[in-house]
Amino acid sequence: MNSEYPIPAGFLERETEIKKSRFIARVYAVASRAEVKAWVETAHKDHPDARHVCWGYQIGRPGSAAEAAMNDDGEPSGTAGKPILNVIQHKDMGDVLVVVIRYFGGTKLGAGGLVRAYAGAAESVLSEVDRVVQKTMAAVVVSMSFADEQPLRHWCDLHHASVDEIDYGVPVRATVGVPADRLASLIEFCEAQRFDYSLDR
Q1: How far, CA to CA in Å, does 46 sit from each of 25, 29, 101?
Q2: Cα atoms found within 13 Å of the Cα of residue 65, Cβ hemisphere only
Q3: pLDDT value of position 1
Q4: I need a surface site. Which of 72, 79, 129, 131 has the fewest CB within 10 A?
Q5: pTM for this prediction
Q6: Both ends of the chain: CA-CA distance in Å?
Q7: Domain architecture of the chain: domains with CATH
Q8: DSSP string of the chain, one letter each residue
Q9: In what order do the strands lie in the sheet with 172-179?
Q10: Of 158, 19, 22, 9, which is closest to residue 93 (Cα–Cα)?
Q11: Is the Cβ–Cβ distance between 149 and 172 less than 8 Å?
Q12: Distance between CA 67 and CA 30 in Å, rounded?
């Protein structure tokens, strides 16, 4: 099965106004619940006077997401988080968080108006954000001498891999995140350099 799928290429923000209420929509690529929490907290810090900070997200492959959730943040139940998540689920995009920040303009929109406003705000960022393909990654623990760290990092730079963790013991142990289609190349490199390696399960 092809395990690659599109995700947002980066952050995008768009603002709409409906009956003097401001709706500021933000889209992020996220890989964990901790990242979702961090970006929602950032929205609260950036807009401390906003009435509501509502959101929805899904992590994993579109259509079979490993995790999804939403939050109305004080709006009537089902009028904010659910429409945001519904738009996400129709966009064929994974690993995506949409946060919509609302400044109340003094006029109530009603349940239907809120659903349309939050869905429209989510649509405004999801329809414009660029996409990249999320590739399945493998993790490999590589053991080497201190002097060999730079050659390993150089190989990673050339092959879209990354040194995610490093332990400067004896030997130095690095956990390398590598696209699954480059795993064989990394193993060849390790064997040529006489590095010990193991797949991190």
Answers
A1: 13, 19, 10
A2: 24
A3: 35
A4: 131
A5: 0.70
A6: 20
A7: 5-133 (3.30.230.30), 136-199 (3.30.70)
A8: ----EEEE-S-EEEEEEETTEEEEEEEEE-SSHHHHHHHHHHHHHH-TT-SEEEEEEEESSTTS-SEEEEE-TTSSTTSSHHHHHHHHHTTT--SEEEEEEEE--SS--HHHHHHHHHHHHHHHHHTTS-EEEEPPEEEEEEEE-GGGHHHHHHHHHHTT-EEEEEE-SSSEEEEEEEEGGGHHHHHHHHHHHT-EEEE--
A9: 162-167, 172-179, 137-144, 196-199
A10: 9
A11: yes
A12: 11
Give the tokens for residue 108: 């109530």
Rounded alpha-carbon distances, angstroms, from residue 163 to 10, 63, 155, 196: 21, 31, 10, 16
Give residues with Cβ within 8 angstroms of 98, minimum separation 6.
25, 26, 27, 28, 55, 56, 57, 84, 87, 88, 122, 125, 126
Distances (CA, A) of 131 to 84, 99, 146, 162: 18, 18, 38, 21
Q: Which amino acid is at 74?
A: G
Q: What are phi and psi of 152, to 5 degrees?
A: -65, -45
Say how far apart CA 120 and CA 3 lie, in whole Å. Answer: 30
How far apart, in whole angstroms, are the C-alpha atoms of residue 53 and residue 82?
Answer: 13
Which amino acid, 133? V
Q: The tokens of 43 are what?
A: 């929205």
- Tens-digit pLDDT profile for residues 2-56: 467 899 998 999 999 999 999 999 999 988 888 899 999 999 999 999 999 999 9
* Residue written as token pair 């006489």: 194
